[in-house]
């Protein structure tokens, strides 16, 4: 009986055939978590609702959505439907962060929504093995979020 259980478990976990594959999965998912965490830390540090954990999960989830089909043999060119789903799904997540007040010009959460969307794109880059692109994109997003001043827009009357 135990032999059957062990045999079944071995078969169920056979999607990772060797150490090279395990290293690839860990590298891509951990980098996605790290880069998402960097952006999330910046947002949390500014007191925004979507912080480090949200950004880490969005980045890792996005990476996983493209990593699994690639490891399953799907060609990168055939990932368009997967990417469309990730982009649309994260768009809905970001939409939940946007709050419109009574005044038409008083909308909050747009930067948070855009940051979540950017984090998903960085996660996709990690999942596809485009680590340099993901790091460069994270640095550019940090420049936008942390270094560019928010313009003071006078209220409309």
From TrEMBL:
UniProt domain MgtC/SapB/SrpB/YhiD N-terminal: residue ranges: 29-149
Signal peptide annotation: none
Compartments (UniProt record): Cell inner membrane; Cell membrane
Keywords, sorted A to Z: Cell inner membrane, Cell membrane, Membrane, Transmembrane, Transmembrane helix
Main location: membrane
TM spans (from-to): 25-42, 54-75, 81-99, 106-125, 131-148
Membrane topology: Multi-pass membrane protein
Pfam families attached to this UniProt entry: MgtC
Keyword Phosphoprotein applies: no
UniProt family annotation: Belongs to the MgtC/SapB family.
Name assigned to this protein: Protein MgtC
Lineage, uppermost ranks: Bacteria, Pseudomonadati, Pseudomonadota, Betaproteobacteria, Burkholderiales
